[in-house]
Design a protein that fits this description.
By secondary structure, this protein is an alpha/beta fold. It contains 8 helices and 9 strands.
Length: about 240
């Protein structure tokens, strides 16, 4: 167990962590990261995004941030990166951690982050008549979680949470990374995002980058590595 020694400007240690999941999943995927961080002495809270709009997901995140008793590290995976970019201006946020995540700038949409970068043919989204999307069942393991077992990939596939695809066209009004210190965990075997795209977003946010050999589901398959970066953020954010 490590001792958390970060002191904020208000003289408080950063001992709170708020985890925000991405599209097609729910907060249960953070279980390994949660257990790792709580064993280190952190108070960890997990947001359950409705995935119905950027506004709704940000509101869900702010409700959890409102409950924190002090400065917190706000963590987002994938689509959750857009959510923490907007919600991260909350006064309880001391730092941001992007886990193979989107990081738009003010006025940009999540969809615009893909422009100019290579396509990812293994990551296929099927969109229903109602505008909600799922990852293609036949491509799920290859595109989202190729480093899991067949059984775990099947469970993730069959428990998908659909996302309103309109969220990707909603512009961010506040880019918290412009004013908050940031870190990025980049999965080097990510097949949902082009590597150059992940590097571009992280470097633009001036994030301290950690590369991990993992799929897009790095939060699930490499929980210790993700927790290590969150721990570093909590110990060094001011």
């Amino acid at each position: 167990m490590t001792e958390n020694v970060t002191i904020t400007k208000a003289g408080q240690k950063v001992t709170n962590v708020v985890l925000v999941h991405g599209a097609f999943t729910d907060g249960a995927g953070w279980r390994g990261v949660y257990e790792n961080l709580t064993a280190r002495g952190y108070k960890v809270s997990i947001v359950q995004n409705p995935l119905t709009s950027l506004e709704d997901d940000v509101a869900a995140t702010r409700r959890v941030l409102d409950q924190q008793d002090g400065p917190s590290i706000l963590v987002g995976h994938s689509w959750g990166g857009t959510v923490i970019t907007e919600a991260g201006v909350h006064p309880n946020v001391a730092g941001l951690v992007y886990v193979s995540a989107l990081a738009p700038d003010t006025g940009e949409t999540a969809a615009e982050q893909y422009e100019g970068f290579a396509e990812t043919p293994d990551f296929v989204i099927d969109v229903g008549d109602d505008g909600y999307g799922y990852i293609n069942r036949h491509k799920f393991k290859a595109g989202f979680a190729h480093d899991t077992s067949d059984a775990d990939a099947a469970f993730l596939r069959d428990s998908q949470v659909p996302i309103n695809m309109a969220v990707f066209a909603t512009p961010v009004t506040n880019a918290a990374w412009r004013n908050k210190p940031s870190w990025a965990v980049i999965a080097t075997e990510d097949r949902a995002f082009d590597q150059a795209m992940l590097q571009h977003m992280a470097k633009r946010a001036n994030a301290a980058i950690t590369e991990v050999a993992a799929s897009h589901a790095v939060f699930l398959t490499q929980p210790e590595a993700v927790a290590d970066t969150i721990d570093e953020a909590a110990r060094t954010a001011a």
